[in-house]
């Protein structure tokens, strides 16, 4: 078995973004020893056909990885279904996976960190995800990484043992709905509208794998390893993505010199979690407007 985790990349209709993502990945020395699996969704309508064609022309000629496997969907699956299917398939085959979408630019040290985290915590059932992204906040910690009780969808990794707990039907919704304290905790002390997103998922107003994954980890009281500084930058909030909303949040620029060399001694939520929550940037528009924009995408 390859010591390096396979990389799964989900693409749709943004050739320039896809090129940028792959180019940044290839700057990681580990790329040459990693298998890349690309899942390309089919056009939802005629307006997307040309862009999807351009993306597929590019991904068919990607090189520089140990091996490249391209999966071209014959019909439009949508991001959620594509991610769930792709991550499940690769986890079942390899036992672990690094997951990226086509709007992410990664650090040259991204894969080293991902593989180190996957290896270090493979037998720790409480650790359910490795995040390459870190929120745009400054916290003074001794180690280069920390544990937080919340997931991310911007450059991440997991194991089959964790992913098999994915709650596809969001069955934990009612438990949170009926418990105000639990709901507040789910919303990061009431700071972010994650429960409203979950509610929209249950009402079929949105189709988000990410909110269901967060719910899955939350139910298990799971932990996610985050780098002290972000190893991932999201370029998808330029309005070009089908599944993005231009939030106006300030993105986290990548410090290309930063490497994760030290890890927390114990698998527990960082004592700096409350401080981090307080420092998290607030949306520049209302929760109602955020959900309204999101719902219109589906």
Quick tags:
disordered C terminus, 298 residues, alpha/beta
Q: Brief overview, please?
A:
By secondary structure, the chain is an alpha/beta fold. It is built from eleven helices and ten strands.
Summarize the SSE layout with pairings.
Elements: E1 7-11, H1 15-26, E2 35-40, H2 49-59, E3 67-72, H3 79-94, E4 96-101, E5 104-106, H4 110-120, E6 127-131, E7 145-148, E8 156-159, H5 160-163, H6 173-177, H7 180-186, H8 194-202, H9 209-219, E9 223-227, E10 232-234, H10 273-279, H11 287-295
Parallel strand pairs: 1-2, 1-4, 2-3, 6-9
Antiparallel strand pairs: 4-8, 5-10, 6-8, 7-9
Helix pairs in contact: 1-2
Explain what this protein looks like in three dimensions.
- With 298 residues, the chain is α/β, with parallel strands linked by helices.
- The chain has a single domain, classed as Spore Coat Polysaccharide Biosynthesis Protein SpsA, Chain A.
- Helix content is 34%, strand content 16%.
- It contains 11 helices and 10 strands.
- The chain has an 8-stranded mixed sheet, with helices on both faces. Strands 5-10 form a two-stranded antiparallel ribbon.
- The radius of gyration is 18 Å and the shape is globular.
- 39% of the residues are buried.
- The C terminus is likely disordered.
- Averaging pLDDT over every residue, what do you get? 91
> Per CATH, what is the topology?
Spore Coat Polysaccharide Biosynthesis Protein SpsA, Chain A
Query: What fraction strand?
Result: 15-25%
**Oligomerization state of this entry?**
single chain
Low-confidence stretches: 237-249, 292-298
Estimate the global geometry from the Cα principal axes.
globular
Structural class: alpha/beta
In the CATH classification, which architecture applies?
Alpha-Beta Complex
**Which sequence of strands runs across the widest sheet?**
3-2-1-4-8-6-9-7
Biggest sheet details: 8 strands, mixed
What's the structural domain tally? 1
Helix content range: 25-40%
* Radius of gyration based on Cα positions: 18 Å
Query: SSE order in H/E notation?
Result: EHEHEHEEHEEEHHHHHEEHH
Query: What is the CATH superfamily label?
Result: Spore Coat Polysaccharide Biosynthesis Protein SpsA, Chain A
Helical segment count: 11
Q: Which CATH top level class fits?
A: Alpha Beta
| Extended strand count | 10
| Distance separating the two termini | 40 Å
């Amino acid at each position: 078995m390859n010591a390096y985790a396979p990389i799964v990349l989900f693409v749709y209709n943004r050739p320039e973004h896809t090129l940028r993502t792959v180019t940044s990945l290839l700057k990681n020395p580990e790329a040459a020893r990693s298998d890349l699996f690309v899942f390309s969704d089919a056009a939802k309508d005629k307006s997307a056909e040309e862009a999807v064609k351009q993306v597929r022309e590019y991904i068919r000629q990607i090189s520089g990885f140990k091996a490249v496997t391209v999966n071209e969907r014959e019909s439009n699956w949508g991001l959620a279904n594509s991610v769930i299917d792709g991550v499940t398939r690769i986890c079942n085959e390899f036992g672990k996976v690094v997951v990226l979408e086509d709007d992410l630019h990664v650090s040259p040290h991204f894969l080293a960190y991902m593989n180190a985290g996957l290896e270090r915590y493979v037998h720790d059932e409480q650790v359910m995800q490795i995040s390459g992204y870190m929120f745009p906040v400054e916290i003074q910690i001794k180690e280069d990484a920390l544990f937080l009780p919340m997931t991310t969808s911007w450059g991440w990794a997991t194991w089959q043992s964790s992913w098999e707990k994915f709650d596809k039907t969001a069955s934990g919704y009612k438990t949170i709905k009926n418990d105000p304290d639990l709901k507040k905790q789910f919303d990061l002390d009431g700071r972010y509208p994650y429960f409203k997103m979950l509610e929209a998922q249950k009402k079929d107003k949105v189709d988000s794998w990410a909110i269901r994954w967060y719910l899955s980890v939350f139910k298990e009281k799971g932990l996610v390893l985050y780098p002290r500084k972000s190893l991932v930058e999201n370029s998808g909030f330029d309005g070009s993505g089908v599944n993005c909303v231009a939030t106006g949040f300030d993105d986290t620029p990548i410090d290309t010199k930063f490497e994760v060399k030290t890890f927390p001694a114990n698998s527990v939520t960082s004592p700096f979690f409350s401080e981090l929550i307080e420092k998290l940037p607030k949306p520049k528009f209302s929760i109602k407007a955020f959900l309204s924009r999101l719902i219109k995408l589906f």
